[in-house]
Amino acid sequence: MDETLSPTPTAPAADTPERQESPRRVAVASFIGNTIELYDFFIYGMAAALVLDDVFFPNLSPLNATLASFSTYAVAFLARPIGSIVFGHFGDRVGRKTVLVTSLLLMGVSTALVGLLPGYATLGSWAPLLLVMLRFLQGIGIGGEWGGAVLLAVEHAPPGKRGLYAAFPQLGPPVGFSAATGVFWLMSASLDEAAFASWGWRVPFLLSFLLVAVGLVVRLKISETPVFARSVARRAASRAPLMELLRRHTRELLLGAGAMAIVYALFYTSMTYGLSYTTNSLGVPRNTMLALSLVACLFLAAGIWFSATRSDTDGRRGLVLSGCGLAAVWSLLLFPLLDTGRPVLMALALGGALFCLGVTSGPMGAYLPELFPARVRYSGASLAYNLGGVLGGAVSPLVVPRLQSGFGSASVGWYVFGMAVVSLLCVRALPETRERELG
After folding, report:
1. What's the chain's Rg over C-alpha atoms?
2. 289 three-state secondary structure
3. What would the pLDDT profile of 254-267 be if each residue is shown by its tens digit?
4. N or C, which terminus of the chain has less Cβ within 10 Å?
5. Can you list the alpha helix ranges (DSSP code H) found in 124-171?
6. Model confidence over 42-73: pLDDT tens digits?
């Protein structure tokens, strides 16, 4: 690596004019790295919906096995804020690049090890315990990823184009999810049920070894951001970023987290729980749902690109508010459309949900970093993003299956509606940031 984790930051070599990066190259690098990490994160959600209950919790009833499987999925969301604090500290003290390399390694190795982990039949109760530990490490790694990836793009972006360049790492989720879905679909379509349950589901996890190597090659070639380099040159780096963040920017932190809640809640409900619900409760073939998920990802990418690029001219806040409003409306249509069991209407349900999600999340790549000064930007943006994951992503797996089991699928829609209203109110309390200087 080009930098080391040291208690006193030193000006990166990238601060010299000849080492200045092409913003386009940095945008592509942030997109590739974020896509790889999100692929790692999403394949776990798919495995949790399709197979982990049988492999790691065969001794439980079907409902309890599903709850246990999704509970391990939720563990990473609880770990993500810890990752934000740890990686945010070093990202604000030492630099964005070093932290991104470390987070990629942690995420990739822990993901690949899930693919090597024996199931309950071999290890007994140790199997789910080790699964939870690896999922926790995944959460630590992804907790430091998003903030660094968007800062890499935003702090290199030309004036007036921060939303455009932040769109590239924001496209990591739909592309990573599409890759995860495509690999699972390929394994499911080419193997019989016994082979898929035995070893086929492990292949997407083992591919992480290769993807991490690709990501490291890309990230090690990128220099530090000029904004951080100037901060170091002025000796303006914070000595205790988390303490400064909590002391001076608590309002922005909490409101930013609330703004992100609907993004996680809508994605989990539509794509992770939706996959389990339609295949297990409605009897829709697994391959059909995986194919529909791939189609829905196109809507997510379209929503992200539209709102992220428009935010440079129309502002971030208004577009995020519009996305929250759309999400509130669509959440009440999601399960009635899924319950029809008709592929066209189910594709509409998932595609509409992900388009609303994309409109909401697209500007966030620039919006959350702009809420915080350079001294605490990595910590602030990462922690806000991942606290939103706790509210929307960790709570939902525990609440949604119980709501559906006890009150029917319509109650799940009302739950997501409530999350959308919470996010909308939080965004209304935040300022517009498009004209702010990054420092």
Report:
1. 21
2. helix
3. 999 999 999 999 99
4. N
5. 126-143, 145-154, 162-170
6. 888 888 878 898 899 988 888 788 778 878 87
